[in-house]
Amino acid sequence: MDxxxxxxxxxxxxxxxxxxxxxxxxYWYSTMYLVAFGIVYLLCSRQxxxxxxxxxxxxxxxxxxxxxxxxxxxGARFGYVxxxxxxxxxxxxxxxxxxxxxxNGNWVFTxxxxxxxxxxxxxxxxxxxxxxxxxxxxxxxxxxxxxxxIPLGYFFxxxxxxxxxELYGRTTESSIGMYxxxxxxxxxxxxSQLYEALFEGIVLYxxxxxxxxxxxxxxxxxxxxxxxxxxxxxxxxxxEPDAHLGFIFLNLSMGQLLCIAMMLSGTYIxxxxxxxxxxxQT
Length: 282
Known about the structure:
Blueprint: H1 3-8, H2 10-13, E1 17-21, E2 24-27, H3 28-49, H4 58-84, H5 86-91, E3 100-103, E4 106-109, H6 117-134, H7 139-147, H8 150-163, E5 178-179, E6 188-189, H9 192-211, H10 219-235, E7 247-249, E8 252-253, H11 254-281
Antiparallel strand pairs: 1-2, 3-4, 5-6, 7-8
Helix pairs in contact: 3-4, 3-8, 4-6, 6-7, 7-10, 8-9, 9-10, 10-11
């Protein structure tokens, strides 16, 4: 098999299950999200240990990361419910948190499917805000600290999506395309998960690291929010829109509309951060 054929058929060769022992099944998808948090922990804890960031100690940081993990799960789930499938879950509210569906008079285990990145961001921001009040720090101080590391962790999350064969791209005639079995067709599609892993993960991490500035409140946070929104907005042109939503407005997907909101939010964060910085210096 030549390299091109290997590349294009790679998704069909990947098993989403990492380990299966009896009734215990561990998936690559969930494992990659744990790896993502592990990466953020390693990068941030190193800064605390070498005293590059001394606003909180290691124990407090571990608490903060736990709060963010809970906020991510809650926000991502409810974000999907409200942004992507509100009508369905309004009629079936028990399915929002219960991993069961009611079929023909019986409850059937289906697991919980459907998470929204944008909802996850709102959940994490809420967690950081609550924790910042607990330790008496400005929200942007902690947010700037975390967002310098988050993109690198996010890279692994998108790799998890790729291994899971989900969030695949639109059809293409380019040789970079892949055949995704979950698409239910035999058409080449953009590996949009890999595009996102590269630009929203590696590239955005490198940009923030290059301009990393803790002296201006909100600088890193605004750069992350704007940068992610920009890259995701562009990549959405290669990503298959949600089948039940399609295009929402002016041929833009729901993801793109939310990314416009992110770019505006990033700009606003810079504006507020600049004012707060000037006030603190006077």
